[in-house]
Amino acid sequence: MSSPAFYASPRALATTCSVLLGLTGLSALWNAAAVLIFGAAPESPTDTALLGAGNIAEVLLTLATAVAFIMWLYRVRVNVEVICPQVYQRGRGWTIGAWFIPFANLYLPWRVTADIWNASGPTDQHGVPQPIRTGVVNAWWTTWVIGLVLGRLEGQAAATAAESATAVAAVLAILMVRGLTDMQQRHAEAARTAALAAYRAPAEHA
Description:
mainly alpha
């Protein structure tokens, strides 16, 4: 059974995600350039070392980014239960488990993120979420999957394209993380304003 939901600002986690995503994107660009210059399988020991160092850096940064991103995604998922509790959402565990189900992990993480995005958008006077564009979420996930697919292919062109797609996906992910975080923060600020007004109202009429 899940613990009771409470709102906590996701901004610190969002900042960590954004920094790590930026570094991952830069490492992907480095590797794309390295493959273009040295080839996918360089013969020179120096070139091989440079390409290998870039690959290791990208792997380590990707792992760190994945941990930070999942922590952020879990936090904004819990926040949704406070922001819009009447909207059905997949259980919190899907923010973690969706990434580890073979084949389904090409779809479920996007679906979970899109659901959270939609539930965090503007609401009407009754608290019902209003339609909101999910273009940045869709673009982020599509580019990320394209990078994964291209990374399975062999050859210099495929490797360069895969790294480039990863870099673009990192930028789109930053925009998505910041956008979703800002939407939730606006809800929190509106709730604080309403609570303060309700607190002051009796005193003003006394």
